[in-house]
Amino acid sequence: MGVLKKFEQRLEGLVNGTFAKVFKSEVQPVEIAGALQRECDNNATIWNRDRTVVPNDFIVELSAPDFERLSPYSGQLGDELAGMVRDYAKQQRYTFMGPIKVNLEKADDLDTGLYRVRSRTLASSSSQQAPDRAPAGGQRPGGYGYPPAGGAPPMPSTPPPGAAPGGYGYPPPAGQRPGAAGGGLAGAPQPGARTRHWIEINGTRHQISRATLVLGRSTEADVRIDDPGVSRRHCEIRTGSPSTIQDLGSTNGIVVDGQHTTRATLRDGSRIVVGSTTVIYRQAEG
Predict the structure, then answer these.
(1) Burial status of residue 25 (CB atoms within 10 A of its CB: 0-12, 13-18, 19 or more)
(2) 267-281 pLDDT, tens per residue?
(3) I need a labelling partner for 251 at 20 to 30 A (CA). Which of 26, 73, 132, 245 fits?
(4) φ and ψ of 144, to 5 deg
(5) Quick one: average pLDDT of 69-82?
(6) For residue 43, which of 179, 209, 136, 174 has the smallest C-alpha distance?
């Protein structure tokens, strides 16, 4: 069973169904959980062959209406989300510099149903022996979006244009694979290279060998997803430069990289949520 599915099942049993009422707002817990997984993937830093460090301190920014609905349960929801991150990290063989924390905050610039995830790698003090802490003596906490100093691989010296230095959750430069040796670019065309496209669903890889790929619950779809929240012909992926995804008039819509949308541009590692299923889009040269 996938990490997100387990998270949903745990959530369903909490506080006698109170969460079911609260989450009738636009933002759904599984979407936030998927965004936290992506935040880990995007900020993974390879220290050595056996150790990849990911953020452990997260802030989920919500619109004022969503924050008002969720804030009374923020402690319990934060604990559940932290547990989900821990399970996902174990699955991906990621490690942490300190305890995992997930907090909710209000953001007045966000509309209902939209949210933003920020993260940082925050080391435990040398006196703490937190279960999530990997051995790393003498590390100091890094700014949000950046790993601690003291042996970590070099990171960009300045954040993206318009971002405050040391702020939360700045992603790698456009197209850069987190932790890629030499700062290689994902999707950067190479002379004579051919781009391969595929998707991953619950650990299963599905190659995209045509210009379009339809996802849905119907047996007529190119890739069938057995999920009651998925429509018969739910969405369509079009490969190209860039690749895109288009909702096909589905009942529940699509969420791409944490955003509700009807159409979006895809990049290597993009996470698509249809129903309660997460689809990971991949592309590579060669």
Answers:
(1) middle
(2) 999 999 999 999 999
(3) 73
(4) -60, 130
(5) 87
(6) 179
Tokens coding 17? 């169904």
Q: What is the pTM of this model?
A: 0.43
Tokens matching residue 111 = 């509309």
- Identify the three-state secondary structure at position 187: coil
Looking at this protein, which amino acid is placed at residue 28?
Q
Q: Where does residue 219 rank: exposed (0-12), middle (13-18), buried (19+ CB within 10 A)?
A: exposed
E strands within the chain? 45-48, 51-53, 57-62, 101-106, 115-120, 195-201, 204-207, 212-216, 223-224, 235-238, 243-247, 254-256, 259-261, 263-266, 271-274, 277-285
**Peptide bond before residue 99 is cis, with ω within 30 degrees of 0:** no
pLDDT grade for 150, boundaries at 50, 70 and 90? very low
CA pair distance 67, 61, nearest whole angstrom: 8
DSSP string, 229-266: TS-TT-EEEE-SSSEEEEE-S-SS-EEETTEEESEEEE
Pair of tokens at residue 132: 């999530």
